Amino acid sequence: MDSGWLVVGRQNRSGSQSGAKRFRIGRLFVGSFFLVFPAFAGRQEVITPAPELVPTSASPGSILIQEENPTFALWGRDRHYTNGAALLYTTSQLKPDNFLSAPIQFLGNSTFLFNRSIPNTDDRFEWTILGQNMFTPQNHNVRNPSLNDRPYAAWLYTSGSFIQNTDDEVLTSLDFQLGVVGPWALGRQVQNNYHAITGMNPARGWYYQLNNQFGFTTSWERRWRFYHVLDNAYAWEIIPNVGITLGNVMTYAKVGGLIRWGRGLKSNWGPDLVHPGYSGTSYFAAKRAGTDWGYNIYAGVQGRVVALNVFLDGNNFQNSRHVDKECAVGDLFIGAEIFYRDKIRFGFSFITRTPEFRQQRGPDTYGAFNLSFGS
């Protein structure tokens, strides 16, 4: 990306197809296929009420900052998915009578979407206060970008996600995302106003970005934990996952897996990356870890079958620039994280993504960090 909201960097350009290299420091601000499947074909006349949640595993809510950028990676090139940033808040464990818990309980009792509540179930709600993704072609210096490269585009959004942790064995999430694509998403302003302040050259092709349109997605995802205990609170685990996203911004199905080794693994379910990457959740409960300090290293993979990507296909019902997308896209990632109680948690990941459109030359690589604080 050629801009930042809080960045220290320098830029050297050499040729129309070369990207900028510089260091950056984090920036702020930037159902479904399974809906609705009956969980039970026949209903009993006598309904047993769900047991109450166990309060001893409760942890406070948290504030999370997400930041993703290709210049965080050693071999990252300043092109295509140039930046993703979001600010999120996740509640503490919801009580059974909380209105935010009601959709989880209803869908768990009547559909396949969530599980029925059992002792040690932990329901939470995640609110993405504000998020922004930016996409650019490879060459930022020309006023009229190549028709063979992906168009300029930005996505400004908010979202709400219902999360259910079932006895640290299954994690289910249902997310509703709403936002705008096009000039209303403020990609040009954020990028080029920063350039004006720092004396960098502006990205010249924003005039040809996608047109304004409202956008939405609905995403459902489920993970399973296969946990293997070692000594002194150490363990290793495998977490496979499946999910689906439907909407006029993106529509795709995904399958993937994560393997982790470390201490205090049950405090969370792995990294939380920006959609459509390995989209985890900001769920974090240090009291489930069995240790004050925790840390782990991980590696994972995710494959997606993409039916719609508005940032490549162009606007839904308007003429706009577009390219021929690849229908199969894969991510490979590695990373590490550390936390101290519910006070602070930090993680960093390196991600390599296979080409997203047919004219793309080679994969894209970027880095991502998550920083959360107990509230």
Strand order of the largest sheet: 1-2-3-4-5-6-8-9-10-11-12-13
Which spans of ≥5 residues are poorly predicted at pLDDT below 50? 1-57
Helix/strand class: mainly beta
Termini separation (Å)? 31 Å
Number of domains as seen in the coordinates: 1
The CATH superfamily label reads Outer membrane protein
Structural account:
The two termini are 31 Å apart. This protein is mainly β and 375 residues long. It has a twelve-stranded antiparallel beta barrel. It has one domain: Lipocalin (Beta Barrel), CATH 2.40.128. A hairpin with a 2-residue loop joins strand 8 and strand 9. The N terminus is likely disordered.
Key structural traits:
Lipocalin; 375 residues; mainly beta; 13 strands; globular
Summary of the model, kept short:
This protein is mostly beta strands and 375 residues long.
Write the layout of secondary structure elements.
Blueprint: E1 62-69, E2 80-90, H1 102-110, E3 121-136, E4 153-166, E5 170-181, H2 187-198, E6 213-224, E7 226-229, E8 234-247, E9 250-263, E10 293-309, H3 310-313, E11 328-340, E12 344-353, E13 364-374
